[in-house]
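Title: Prediction job returns without error message
Component: structure pipeline
Severity: low
Priority: P3
Assignee: unassigned

Description:
Job completed but the reporter wants confirmation the result is attached to the right record. Sequence as submitted:
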Amino acid sequence: MTETTPTTAAEGQVAARKPNKAGRLVFLLITLGCFVYLYFRLNGAAAREGLSLVDYMVQVFANVQWIPWLLLMMAYSGLYFLIDTLVVTRALNWFIEPVKYRDILPIRASAYIISVFNEQIGKGAMAYYLNKRDQVPGWEVGSVMLFIMFCEMFYLLIWATIGFFVSSGSTLPEAFSLIPIIALGALAFFVVWLLYFRGVILPGNQLRNRRILHAFKIATLKHYLLFFLLRSPALITAVFVYTIALNLFGVEISVLNLLGYLPVIFFAATVPTPMRAAAITFWVFLFPENEGQMAAFGFVQHNFFILFNALIGALFWRRAQRELFNS
C-alpha cells in the first residue's frame, strides 16, 4: 500500500472535481444544443404541413404500426441480452477465472437497471457485484469492464468503416468520408497499444502493471478478434431490426444503406444525454427529409431498448439480491 500526504490527497480531490464539473457542463451544452436543433427542425417540418408542432407529432405517432414494432423490439432486446451476457462471460473467463454463463445472467441483467442512467456506471455495478458475490478482486474485474468498453469503441468503428465502403454508392453525408481516415488513425493507435502492453514498446514502464489494466496486459490479438466476432451478431441483427422498424415508422431504407449509418448512431447513443438526445438528433440530421418520423423513431427506439432491458433486469433482480447478500 502506498501512502499519500494530506496535501497531495487534497490536490487530487480538487483536480478530480474540476473535470467532473467541466464534463457535466459539456454534456449539458450538448443536450441543450440537441433539443434546440430538434425543436427548430420539427417546428419547421410542422409549419410546412400547415400544422402545429403537437398536431404534427401526433400525426406521426398515429401512423406507426405499433404492434409489429413492439414484438420486433422485444425479440431483439432479448437476443441482445443473451449476446451481451456471452461477451461478459467470455471476457471474465479470459482474464480472471472460469465463470458459468448462467451465473452471469442475473449480474448483467441487473446492471441494465443502472444503465438506464449511464452505461459505464452499469458496468461498474457489475464489477462491484462480482467482487461482493465471488470475492473476485475488484480492480481485476474493473479492468475487464474497461477492456469491454475499449473494444466496443473499436468494434463500432470497424463496422462503421465496413458500412462506409458497403454504402459508398448511396447518399451518405460528406462528413462520413472521414471514417476511413479515423479508422486508419485508430488502427495505428491500436498497434501501438497492443505492442505497449506486450512489453515491446517502453519495456521498463510500469503503468501496464497497474491492476486496473490487468486485462490489457494479458490480452492478445486473439482476444480482441474474438471480442469482435462475439459482439458482431448483435450489430448485424440490429441492422436488420432497425431497417424493419424504420419501415414500420413509414420510412423506407435498405439494409445496406442503414449499415453505413447505424454504427455511427450507436456512437452517438453512448453520449450520456437525457432521453438519448444525441442519438435522436443524429437520426433527424442524417434523414432530413423525414424529420418527424426520425425524431419519433429515435426517441421510441432507443428509450424502449434501455427501458425494456431494465425490465429484463427487474426479472432477475430478486435472484441477484439473494446471491449478493447470501454470499
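Comment from assignee: result matches the submitted record. The CA atoms of residues 119 and 285 lie 24 Å apart.
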